[in-house]
Design brief:
The chain is of the alpha/beta class and 363 residues long. The chain folds into 2 domains: 20-259, Type I PLP-dependent aspartate aminotransferase-like (Major domain) (Aspartate Aminotransferase, domain 2), CATH 3.40.640; 261-362, Aspartate Aminotransferase, domain 1, CATH 3.90.1150.10. 35% of the residues lie in helices and 16% in strands. The protein is built from 9 helices and 14 strands. The protein has helices at 18-27, 46-63, 77-89, 102-112, 227-232, 242-259, 262-282, 308-320, 345-362; strands spanning 7-8, 69-75, 94-99, 116-122, 146-149, 151-152, 157-158, 170-173, 190-194, 204-210, 288-289, 300-304, 323-324, 335-338. Helix 1 (18-27) packs across helix 6 (242-259), helix 3 crosses helix 4 (102-112) and helix 7 packs parallel to helix 9. Bound molecules: pyridoxal-5'-phosphate (PLP). The site of pyridoxal-5'-phosphate has 11 residues, from helix 3.
């Protein structure tokens, strides 16, 4: 860790890889060949064109994606995608949604403004402790698509296999586990992720869309909400967040070249999360994990302590030791350690050590 920095367990915006921050710092005043900052050059310049192509190419390589998938960078984060995908593909018809937690619920609420949303499974009555098995899903014939959330950031539960939905179009909010492990992209028709967890700064979403879907986009949509127009204009219909796209480019390059791709990062993410779940399991009763074991997220580790006073003390003592942002989401309380790709193994080791010590002195 660089001097002055902490292990930041924020759920997003969250840690970025230090080599990325250093590179951005080095290039901040004068991007090579531009004599100006990336923030100061035209989004229509040749240099920016290279920056955006570079970002797309690394994502393509990481996901082993063929040319019939298009990548765009959209404003408005993942929340705008909740609306945008419904405006483009629901449009008064019916779609199936899998309600696995807070973010899936939000996607459904936005979807309902544009058509019929069928909740084909809900984990609400179980307090969102697990992801469903495909055998529990009743896909409806008329569904235009099936929407799921691959990782519920607030509850800390994750799908490790895509739901099996037959030949329906599969749409996925992958905001909090995008590029954290390999996936078979050919199973997806549309996948989107707010950038600020695993791939960059806030403010944009990375959207991957299968080309044949573009012919289904209705005419005369507002320009920035029109997937076809966004693809045709290579995300440059208007002035995008050029700085965010640049940083995404650095992150995906780091992931591919320094880390060695998605199999490698998956190995690391497994090791990191196992370290923390082990402490929870070995001190079961003091640390109470939220997720059922087979749905435990590798990105967001959610747990409670015996009471709220202890939780407050845990969070503030950890912060004093440079382990910050461990408070759970305000809607569910408790504690949450978000350990996306950029969280070093040492950060998880330090937290595991702190947790063991805390239980020794407070258990
Ligand atoms: C799974 C998931 N979906 C959607 C969102 C909303 O993202 P944004 O704030 O980029 O709109 C988040 C943000 O935390 C998230 O974790």
């Amino acid at each position: 860790m660089l001097e002055g920095r902490v292990f930041n367990f924020s759920s997003g915006p969250s840690m970025l890889p230090e080599p990325v921050l250093l590179k951005a710092q080095q290039e901040l005043l004068a991007y090579p060949g531009a004599g100006a900052s990336v923030m100061e050059i035209s989004h229509r310049s040749k240099i920016f064109d290279e920056i955006i192509e570079n970002a797309k190419n690394y994502i393509k390589k990481l996901l082993n994606m063929s040319d019939n998938y298009k990548i765009i960078f959209t404003p408005g984060g993942a929340t705008m995608q909740f609306s945008m995908l419904a405006i483009n593909f629901l449009n008064g018809a019916s779609a199936d949604y899998i309600n696995t937690g807070s973010w899936a619920s939000k996607a459904m609420s936005e979807g309902k403004k544009h058509g019929t949303v069928r909740e084909i499974w809900s984990g609400k009555s179980e307090n969102y402790v697990r992801m469903p098995d495909s055998s529990e899903l009743k896909i409806s014939d008329e569904a235009k698509y099936v929407h799921f959330t691959s990782n519920e950031t607030i509850q800390g539960i994750e799908f490790f296999n895509e739901p099996d939905i037959g030949d329906k179009l599969l749409f996925c909010d992958a905001s909090s586990d995008f590029l954290s492990r390999p996936i078979d992209i050919t199973k997806y028709a549309l996948l989107y992720a707010g950038a600020q967890k695993n791939v960059g700064p806030s403010g944009i979403a990375v959207v991957i869309i299968r080309e044949d879907l573009l012919s289904l986009v209705p005419e005369k949509l507002p320009s920035l909400l029109d997937y076809r127009l966004m693809v045709e204009n290579n995300s440059l219909y208007n002035t995008p967040s050029t700085w965010s796209i640049y940083i995404v480019g650095l992150v995906v390059k780091w992931l591919y070249e320094d880390i060695g791709g998605l199999y490698k990062i998956e190995e690391l993410n497994k090791k990191k999360s196992e370290l923390l779940y082990k402490v929870i399991d070995e001190n079961n009763g003091f640390y109470i994990g939220h997720a059922q074991k087979n749905s435990r997220s590798r990105m967001n580790i959610t747990f409670r302590l015996p009471d709220e006073t202890l939780e407050k003390e845990f969070i503030s003592k950890a912060s004093a030791e440079g382990l910050t942002e461990l408070k759970g989401h305000r809607s569910v309380g408790g504690c949450r350690a978000s350990i996306y790709n950029a969280m070093p193994y040492e950060g998880c080791e330090a937290l595991a050590q702190f947790m063991k010590e805390f239980v020794r002195t407070h258990g």
